[in-house]
Design a protein that fits this description.
By secondary structure, the chain is of the alpha+beta class. The chain has 2 domains: about 45 residues, no CATH class; about 110 residues, no CATH class. Helices cover about 40% and strands about 10% of the residues. A hairpin with a 2-residue loop joins strand 3 and strand 4. Helix 1 packs across helix 2, helix 4 crosses helix 5 and helix 4 packs across helix 6. The relative contact order is 0.13. The protein binds zinc ion.
Length: about 200
Amino acid sequence: MRKAVPPQVREAARQRTCLDCRAAPGEKCAPGPGGRSNLHSSRIRSAEQGLAPLPPRQLLPLDGDRTYSELSIGNPDSLILSVHSEVQRTLALHLEELGALYVIVLGQADLLDLTELTNPLVLWMMSPVACLTVKEQVEFAERLVARGFADSPHPGAFRVAPLAARIVQRSELDPRFIAEWDAAKAAWPGGASKLFSDR
Ligand SMILES: [Zn+2]
């Protein structure tokens, strides 16, 4: 069970957007079962993070592994989002920051009108940011700056470090890697997995 939440965290949590029920800052969370009043865990986590010191700077190895996501599924010329695996690992427990990173990098490439973007996983990663206030978005972007994953050329404007994440063309990737990737996609068995037994 969760430890009791200190009153100052509880108060800060009420002033933040709730990612569970999308309550705006100052609004109450949606009531729980039986109409009991509630403060959702994402709000508490977000407040704890906001009150904590900025995260430390993290040096990314230049030759680190990267993960690649096509932005436009099924489009042979799709642009590709390339993210350093250490960034992905560090931000796995900081989904608002990961979402902010994706939003900033797509914004830098003018891709935020979403016409190109049909990869559901990428859209899902960005979704926590959509309901945050601008002040909260800036706060998460500033945490990316503290980590060294982004910089801020002027107040309120952010750029992701290319080593952390960038948009690339297929032609920029190793042709052998592309061939293996395409072959793996073609060989995907596509069978269904039975999650629910009917017996
Ligand atoms: Zn809530």
